[in-house]
Amino acid sequence: MNFVFLSPAFPPNYYLFCANLRKEGVNALGIGEAPFGGLRPELRQSLAWYYQVGNMRDHGQLREAMRFFIVRFGTIARIDSLNEFWLETEAELRSEFGIPGVQAANVSQIRRKSMMKNVFSRMEIPHARGRLLSSAAQAQLSAAELKFPVIVKPDDGMGAEFTYRLDSASDVDRFFEDKPDRAFIMEEFIHGDIVTFDGLADLDGRIVFCTSHVYGQGVMEAVLADMHISYYSLRDIPADIEAAGIKLVKGFDVRERFFHFEFFRRNDGTLCALEVNIRPPGGMTMDMFNFACDIDMYSVWAKMMAHGAIRLDCARKYHCGYAGRKNRLRYAHSHEEIMERLGAWIVHHDGLPPILARAMGDNGYLLRTRDIAAMDRAVNFIQELS
Known about the structure:
This protein is of the alpha+beta class and about 375 residues long. About 35% of the residues lie in helices and about 25% in strands. The model has no long low-confidence stretch (mean pLDDT about 95). The N and C termini lie far apart (about 55 Å). It is built from 14 helices and 17 strands. A hairpin with a 4-residue loop joins strand 13 and strand 14 (about 270-275). Helix 1 crosses helix 11 (about 295-305). The strands form four sheets. It has a five-stranded antiparallel sheet with strand order 11-12-15-17-16, with helices on both faces. The chain has a four-stranded parallel sheet with strand order 3-2-1-4, with helices on both faces. A four-stranded antiparallel sheet has the order 5-8-6-7, sandwiched between helices.
């Protein structure tokens, strides 16, 4: 089996997908901009071939890489990056070379927030109201309907990139004065906490693994305020989150892919769908899957890709939490104090690449415990400001 992996060097932990493909006898064929010698040794050893391109955004270069692989290795069975940034690129290459998976004709449904809302409506899942923006005048009308404050963000954006909170009509005018040249959507501001339904679906759309996370502060809020972020997994998934998540796996026809569905838990306890991401959750969340359940989801995914049907029996043994810290902030406790006090609970800590640091922090700690109150105390200790 030949599997083309786009940009396998980023995020840094994604080399584990290629390493596990190799363990399952799959030819992992990488395409990326980084020189082969600059890849981490474990990734170099995992790839059957690496094709360096000058620009990953140049479809012609990617096309030539694919043709090279086909001549040298034969039929390409799958192509992926497991990265939201390359969703459309993957889909275009699948359609061009006859490879199964999300195709160019339907990738917009899982990329554009305006189209996601159509699926939310069809599946009868409450969701944040929103309008695509065409002009300042139309935006003022939409804001009046949705009520200030409102959120404005790219229709096809990732994370909190180019996301703004507008609190008044003058804010709307200022936004349009410097508006980036791309499609934006305006959404009502929802008061509540972010909760998720995350997991992996097989080729037939059956859920192989699922879990749920609760955020102490949403990514958007962390980016806008330039603050740190924290979140943790639940040992028991609330029934309403699981029911909505199962509906969305079906509604978005998720097959052979990870998923990351975001909801607001409103102050009155009800759920409100925010958006879907048909890829693994970001940051260190893949590792949180593993630490929470004592499993290896990198291996589970690779086995599914190599052999098709797979069954996973596991239990959510722990709450696994992430606590990020930003270099610009002054914290009450040093790294050494954190390790001395919480070392028994900390299963991993590391720095994050600059491209992720704005949202996730410059450094992150993973903790696990069976007691959610202990998790809260530990996260508060790590993130306590001086």
